[in-house]
Amino acid sequence: MQKVRYIGGSLVILLAFWQIVASLGGWNEALFPSPWGTLRGLGELIASGVLATDIGASLGRFALGYSSAVVLAMALGLVLGWYKGIWNYLNPLAQVLRPVSPVAWLPFIVLFFGIGEMPALVIIFIAAFFPVLLATVAAVQGMDAVYLKVARNFGIGQPQILGKIVFPAVFPRIATGLHLALGTAWVFLVAGEMAGAQSGLGFLIIDARNNLRADWLMAAILTIGVLGLALDGIVSYLESHIYRRWGLARRN
Amino acid sequence: MSYIKVEDVSRHFVRADGTSFQALDHVNLEVRQGEFICLLGPSGCGKSTLLNILAGFEGTSEGDVYIDGQEVKKPSPKYVTIFQNYGLLPWRTVLKNVELGLEEQDVPRDEREKIARHYLEVVGLQDFADSHPAELSGGMQQRVAIARALAVDPEIIFMDEPFAALDALTRMKLQDEVSAICREQHKTIIFVTHDIDEAVVLADRIVVMTPNPGHIKTVIPVDLHGRRDRTSPDFWDIREKIFECFSLKPEDKTEYYI
């Protein structure tokens, strides 16, 4: 109940502030829309089915880019965390690549993969890859030694131990990385879709800008925000479930 | 011939600052099959190191360890270790935890479940087969670990301060249970503890160890048979002997006049 009040309160503050800025600014409605104008624009986008198509396209790309990054980064992180000798050589490289914004690679991505569908996928992939890789490596290296002792005691051998013991044992710590990567990748979705994609929320933003439809632009921005929040909510829920199952204290 | 033989075992560690630390200094010990041995001593006396060497988790610096005539080189499901923090797999149900060791021995699925359920019954947790470890109390989790150890039918069970994290009453209850279960199942037990009462309740022989460097000070036989009464005079006699070993008993300076 308290939460509803906070959300309602912040919504009222936003709308009031927005309306004041729009009225006092005196800009043309085509450059800066009022809340009401945005709502109408949103209505148009929904009625024409454009929004649903673009949401579908974006979520599809996001699911593909994110899940492939997650699977690859977890598998690689598991192996690299386990064989510390290899990681010692790759760690400096990862540390150099990690702070580079995925968008910076865009010219090369376009060069390698062309424009259209691929740049968005690749950028989401890069954005999600490093947080998950580093979280997995750190989790494996910091694993509670008792699991390894149990595995050795019962004669669980080298290849199986990774899937049977190590991965599930460190999964809560990886989940934290997955959560982080989800947020980062969602932020870069829009940037990725600006490089020649013909659908998606990023494309909608470019398209709205080109057509001087600030109301659509604002509606797209709000949609991205709300969807991002919803994705985060789902992952948070799964994460807390995992933490409970593993018997760990809930992360603050 | 003795069943477990520790022959002149030493173990040094090199500390981070380069100095060497002698965890075990020329330790000799022989254990008969079916014996319940407690390694008792303060922290740093090498009792856990000795257990880890016996269980095959660590090597020796000098000397060798033999079990049943075979030199111990690595862990084996014939000798299962139970840890202070239980070592259960939190993502598996209690039943699946107990089945873990059987999976590696290629026991068929329904056979596995039957064995696991049997040992859950032995430790009194048959109603919690489908729970997850995090839903159980510490004492119950340690019971699951015991069931998991028993399920592979090991010859020896090593226990590394298994009850140290439990409250006093739960601890005493589990001591009685473990003592009864292990004697019933005819297992050889090596039990590490720093709790004098625990050692007297459980052991056939108490191996008293002291630190700097870690070595065996003496071995005290406990001639109390069957279920032990923590309040009986015999119990207190042995307890007193151990207190003397650790120089914890104040000298009696009273003068008596008749």
UniProtKB/TrEMBL annotation, chain A:
A single GO BP: alkanesulfonate transmembrane transport
Cellular component terms per the entry's GO annotation: plasma membrane
Any transmembrane segments, and where? 63-83, 95-115, 121-140, 217-238
User: A Pfam family this protein belongs to?
Assistant: BPD_transp_1
Domain ABC transmembrane type-1 spans what residues?
A: 59-235
Q: Which UniProt keywords apply?
A: Cell membrane, Membrane, Transmembrane, Transmembrane helix, Transport
| Protein name in the entry | NitT/TauT family transport system permease protein
Do you know which SUPFAM superfamilies this protein is assigned to? Answer: MetI-like (SSF161098)
Q: Report membrane topology.
A: Multi-pass membrane protein
The record, for InterPro entries, names: MetI-like, MetI-like_sf
**The species this protein was found in:** Selenomonas ruminantium
The UniProt entry's sequence similarity note says:
Belongs to the binding-protein-dependent transport system permease family.
Q: Where in the cell is it found?
A: Cell membrane
From TrEMBL, chain B:
Q: Which PROSITE patterns match?
A: ABC_TRANSPORTER_1 (PS00211), ABC_TRANSPORTER_2 (PS50893)
The answer to keyword Nucleotide-binding applying to this record is: yes
| Gene3D superfamilies per UniProt | P-loop containing nucleotide triphosphate hydrolases
* GO MF, any single term: ATP binding
Domain ABC transporter residue range list: 4-236
Is Glycoprotein tagged as a keyword? no
For this protein, the record's Pfam families field holds:
ABC_tran (PF00005)
Keywords annotated in UniProt: ATP-binding, Nucleotide-binding, Transport
Protein known as: NitT/TauT family transport system ATP-binding protein
Q: What is the lineage of its organism?
A: Bacteria, Bacillati, Bacillota, Negativicutes, Selenomonadales
